[in-house]
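User: For documentation purposes, I need each entry recorded in a consistent format: the amino acid sequence on its own, followed directly by the corresponding structure tokens. There are two entries in this batch. Please keep commentary to a minimum and don't merge the entries.

Assistant: Recorded as requested. Entry 1:
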Amino acid sequence: MTCHTRRDLGLLALRLGTGGVLAAHGAQKLFGWFGGGGIEGTAQGMEAMGYHPARPSAIASGAVEAGGGLLLALGLATPAAGAAAAGGMAGAAAVHAPSGFFAQSGGFEYPGFLGWTAASIGLAGAGRYSLDHATGHCFDRHWMVPVAFAASAAAAVLVIRKRARGLAAASDETAPGDTAP
């Protein structure tokens, strides 16, 4: 087995595993599959986590995970899929960051790892055993990598900052000494 074949098999395995996990999480959010809450349950969770408006946030989160995960697994539009999934996981990691790193303490270890892995696949490319390769890389051009990652990073920063401002405003409204009920 050649080095290139091993690399392409490794990328296939990495894409299938990471993409499958992300797609399953997105399906929980969007459709209630695999014990998930569906749009309504996810919207309630997003509301509690400080993402407003909650329903569009739930749809966006589910779509990024399901769509990005499926595209990663297939190896199609890999830079955009990896960047979108990484951006979505940045939002999830922001929720868990106050609890530290490790997942056992509620930390950001798991979404951070998924985001990092998705980003790495987006940067590395899907390999020969992919739809990107089969289609002549028509959805995987060199210029798409910086564009996809810049757009995803900008969107993640905006969403995370908006959430942080909303949480700060809610905290100010309920500060000690406040006469509000």
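Entry 2:
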Amino acid sequence: MSQTVDRALSILPLLAEGPANLEQVATRLGVHKSTALRLLRTLHEHGMVYRQEDQRYRLGARLFALAQQAVENLDVREIAHPHLVALNEQCGHTVHLAVYEEDEVLYIDKVESRYPVRMYSRIGKPVAITVAAVAKLLLADLPEPERRAVAERLTYPAYTARSTPNAAAFLKELATVREQGWATDLGGHEESINCVGAPIRGADGRVVAACSVSAPNVVVTADELLTLLPLVRRTAEAISREYSGSAPARGPHDAMAEAPGAVKPEAVRSDKRTKEPLS
């Protein structure tokens, strides 16, 4: 990167702190005022900065428009997919990606298990919102008033003895998930299916999606599945970094660099998962 471009880009985070005059910009950059003025004029011509009546400079509207356009064009599924495939290759189990839209949690991607059992879940299909691990992750991130409103208008089917029974219990689970940053799903919709999931965050730290690994008891026990939690969390963090642009993009296998260590997390609750033999 040329020195001129580097200096020009250094002005933007400075002005993000608040308006600054020419002398302040020059001092921060360590350059003569004439150099700072030339850089500011160029940025002003492109709408990246704006000169106020008091002769101080602030960030320009064009910069915000570009940022908004970039966010709107982000496709979390496209970014996440290679990471989900790599996670599936590492563990062999079914991997899901889900988002919260219009009061529903929907699967938007899925990588099938290598084992001779498959989940009934389908891309575009809503999950059982009161028991799904991905649903807990997405709803736990909502502001408290919205979280409570959603919980109170839901119904709570008793899929199994481990299903979430009511709004109070659901809100308690969401509080736990919000604090710990991951969720489990141990037989809440079907006794034999377990799941562990982690959140995917945008540049503002908010949860934009959730990924999970699911497997039936005939393949791995719940305790064995829980040992994959570090791997699932590293995958979610790698997707988050790439989605938010907070660090240089990393390959999907970078999240798999370390073998997952055994963990004994306290079970939260469970999710909707079913299986069917391969035909």
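Summary note for entry 2:
The two ends are 56 Å apart (CA to CA).
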